[in-house]
Design brief:
Strand order of the largest sheet: 4-10-5-6-7-8-9
Order of helices and strands: HEEHHEHHEEEEEEEEEHHE
CATH topology of the largest domain: endopeptidase fold (from Nostoc punctiforme)
Mean pLDDT: 92
Structural class: alpha+beta
Helix content: 25-40%
Number of strands: 13
Strand content: 25-35%
Number of domains: 2
Low-confidence stretches: none
Radius of gyration: 20 Å
CATH architecture of the largest domain: Alpha-Beta Complex
Largest sheet: 7 strands, mixed
């Protein structure tokens, strides 16, 4: 999954009828399911919570998420959920952050869409333009678009985050181009990249990536912003 696909799905979910509910990752509300959740997490499902969920469900299909469940659900092929699929086990927010996020930073000047935002006990998805998609009980108890105070001045639904990092299960800086009968996937070079590192992160050899990119005269010299072909499919 590319970071763009990840972001697009998060935005789509935020426009649906959703509710924040502990221990969920995109399942539809139903009475049997919510009884099961109440037995599993009794303190998170008091009578008032159950009433709120029932009221929301009256508006149509209601999808349930908690903060890490939003990330897990998307990786697990939401809405056709496949539990623990695509390399991500059932971990909590700290598990996602500590085990599955790389290139973590407190510098928000270099954040990219699709990165994971983190504060203690909570995670969100950065979608660009100073905005985040998060499942939260803080505002409206749903999946919504909020503003990242670290880089946005908009005071509405705004939160300051501690760090951000790349979800290592996603492919960042990639775009797909159709040329004749072939499909080419390109990676955009960022500061600090090397051709061998790009090859390794995409399960390719340096020789393979050089053969796909004859326009690069010196494999030891690439530049930020340069497009590198990483896959050619018929």
């Amino acid at each position: 999954m590319t970071s763009k696909e990840f972001v697009d799905i998060a935005i789509k979910i935020s426009k649906l009828n959703t509710a924040y509910a502990s221990g969920t990752f995109g399942q539809k509300f139903s009475e049997p399911f919510i009884r099961q959740k109440r037995e599993q997490y009794p303190s998170s499902y008091p009578d008032s919570k159950i009433r709120s969920l029932r009221n929301k469900a009256e508006k149509g299909d209601l999808y349930l998420f908690d903060c890490c469940g939003l990330i897990k659900g998307i990786i697990w092929n939401w809405p056709n959920l496949i539990y623990k699929s695509n390399g991500l086990p059932d971990v909590n927010d700290s598990g996602i952050w500590n085990q599955y996020c790389i290139n973590r930073s407190k510098d928000f000047s270099n954040i990219q869409p699709g990165e994971i935002l983190h504060i203690k006990g909570h995670v969100g998805i950065y979608i660009g333009d100073g905005k985040c998609i998060e499942a939260t009980a803080r505002w409206n108890e749903c999946v919504l678009e909020s503003h990242v105070m670290n880089i946005s001045d908009d005071p509405n639904f705004s939160r300051r985050w501690d760090e951000h990092g790349m979800l290592k299960l996603l492919k960042y800086n990639e775009e797909t181009t159709q040329v004749g009968d072939g499909v080419y996937i390109y990676y955009t070079v960022k500061k600090g990249d090397t051709l061998s590192g790009i090859a390794y992160s995409h399960n390719m050899t340096l020789k393979q990536i050089i053969e796909l990119n004859p326009q690069i005269p010196n494999p030891n010299l690439i530049y930020p912003g340069q497009k590198i072909c990483i896959i050619k499919e018929k």
